[in-house]
Amino acid sequence: MSLHPVVERVTARIAEKSLPTRTAYLARIDAARPRGPVRRDLGCGNLAHGFAASGPDKPMLKAGAGGNLGIVTAYNDMLSAHQPMEQYPALIRMAARNAGGSAQVAGGVPAMCDGVTQGRSGMELSLFSRDVVAMSTAVALSHEMFDAALLLGVCDKIVPGLLIGALTFGHLPAIFVPAGPMPSGIPNKEKAAVRQRYAEGKATREELLDAESASYHAAGTCTFYGTANSNQMLMEVMGLHMPGSAFVNPHTPLRDALTVAAAEQALRITALGEDYRPIGRTVDEKAIVNAMVGLAATGGSTNHALHLVAIARAAGLVIDWDDLDELSQATPLLARVYPNGSADVNQFHAAGGLAFVIRELLDAGLMHADIRCVHGGDLRAQARAPALEGTTLVWRDAPAQSGDTAIVRGAADPFDREGGLRRLQGNLGRAVVKISAVAPEHRAIAAPAKVFDSQDALLAAFKAGDLTGDFIAVIRGQGPRANGMPELHKLTPTLSVLQDRGQRVALLTDGRMSGASGKVLAAIHVTPEAACAGAIARLRDGDPIRIDAEAGVLHADVPEAEWTMRDATRPDLAGNHHGTGRELFGLMRANVGSAEEGACSLFTQD
User: Which residues, 6+ apart, have CB-to-CB distance to 329 below 8 Å?
Assistant: First the structure.
């Protein structure tokens, strides 16, 4: 199947505008390629420090023989998604020894949970934690002891941070090793219903906690299709997983077999062998386009409108929201997984899952097959599902047909003609909107603004009965420069209640929504942000606003003469810079790029 013309055009455009930065990046990683085990170049004292506690691996490390894997882990036992990784290093070391190599835990990275910090001041560290993870990954790999890396992470900012950090060591092969989703709990629709009842005062805190505990109930990733599970999709379509690793449950023989296989394969693709696959060559413009297409086709998380820009930049590539928008308009929606459906990721996986979706997109010419996947083949090999035959790990072709057409469909019979994400623009700036969970009748709105400077202020207005009639809720002063761009997920139940009452409502913000962005139209990531005197800071209560996701419009219908004369209302941020560790992140807030630049504080803004 030939490439879809939009995919071909966008890929060529990215390659052209990235030519200087990508050329420089590839030259750097080529220069860093080792011609033997890199630790042989270390001084004797340096090397002795590097293997002093390595036990049975010490002779091999001392001799400089065999490949040595650097494990970078996001393990902690507070996050359900990362708790299963506690035993991974022992399993990986055993697998590496059996394959003639060795493995060491190179370092750990922080792994915070947006589900725990949602609506709390700690959420203001969330997006910047991605950059801390990237720096921590670089610190871990800086010892020059390793021939390849295994990256252990799953959740929201952690996988993008690990990938950004690994790309600064782009001469090293790297494989992502996930943990998989927890078994299914109560249906997501039931959980959402209890949340809405609680927002209306019709459910008690005890009832809400019982519902939440029945949903988030075991080790593994949360089962809705938010940022964490979108991360796993991205790693598959970019060729950075062993095929089908994303949604295999933790603490199962198949999960362990995939972890062992990742260790064995990482040793095969080092510069010491004949199939060298550095991560900087795997993550090219084709892999980034695959990621954007996969995000659109599955209705994935809006957070990746930030993360993919930053990941691309780490690999010397330049993308923007126009690229994402154009690809999304050409990509059919093939999956309905909560919040843009009722199924969870376990049901999606059972119905054919990513193997089915990747095969369908390849057959439709919407993905590049010819990327250098870590498993040794191209993306066609990623369209397979892992299984055990006795104790032997095998891969089987994706099913010819969907196992449940209410959850996943082929490209010839999609849920929607276009994907889940769109770019908006107008006199209010540029923004992102997720439409896959929004009913067609709610994808456009013209209504007066109700302006707030925090989500708590909106919630107080709701409790006071002030949110009547149709309106667009404007929450400003929530951008990366203002306060680290926290998610505003606390608003979802309240706005859903109002929409269910028959009011026409929407959200407009320079902040983020959760990866679980739902049925209410939300124009998010507005740039320029209010803290940078963006147009959103000019809005006043009652201003007529138009948001049209289908037409890509974001406009304040204020007379132009009046609009240009208005002063921007800068947000009062005095209360956002101290407490919960926020004082330590002032340098990041001061140097962060815009949302469309990836909201990243790591790169000089040149």
Answer: 6, 418, 419, 422
Report DSSP letters for 14-46, one per residue.
HHHHTHHHHHHHHHHHHHH--SS-GGGGS-HHH
Extract the tokens encoding 432: 């992102």
Q: State the CB neighbour count (10 A cutoff) for residue 35.
A: 9
pLDDT at 215: 83
Residues 430 and 500 grouped into a single domain: yes
What gap in Å lies between CA 493 and CA 193, rounded to an integer? 9
Q: Distances from the Cα of 216 to the Cαs of 168, 189, 224, 490, in angstroms?
A: 35, 14, 10, 17
Which residue ranges in the chain fall short of pLDDT 50? 605-606
Residues 436 and 375 occupy one common structural domain: no
Those residues whose C-beta lies under 8 Å from the C-beta of residue 255, and which sit 6 or more positions away, are: 84, 179, 180, 248, 249
- CATH number, domain containing residue 438: 3.50.30.80
pLDDT value at position 516? 63
Q: Which residues of 559-579 are buried (b: 16+ CB within 10 A; e: fewer)?
A: eeeebeeeebbebeeeebeee
Domain span including residue 535: 421-573
Q: How far apart are CA 138 and CA 134, in angstroms?
A: 6
- Paired tokens of 469: 């009639």
Tokens read off for 89 = 């290093």
Q: Does residue 357 form part of some domain?
A: yes
- Tens digits of residue pLDDT in 456-495: 999 999 999 999 999 999 999 999 999 999 989 888 889 9
Residues 6 or more apart from 604 whose CB is under 8 A from it?
none
What's the CA gap between 182 and 543, in Å, rounded? 45
Angstrom distance (rounded) from CA 229 to CA 245: 12
Closest Cα partner for 484 from 411, 393, 571? 571
Are β-strands 384-389 and 392-397 bridged in parallel, bridged antiparallel, or unpaired? antiparallel
State pLDDT tens for residues 387-443.
Answer: 999 999 999 999 999 999 999 999 999 999 999 899 999 999 999 999 888 999 999
Q: Is the pTM of this model over 0.90?
A: yes
Could you give the CA distance from residue 318 to residue 308 in angstroms, rounded to a whole number? 10
- End-to-end distance of the chain based on CA atoms, in angstroms? 40
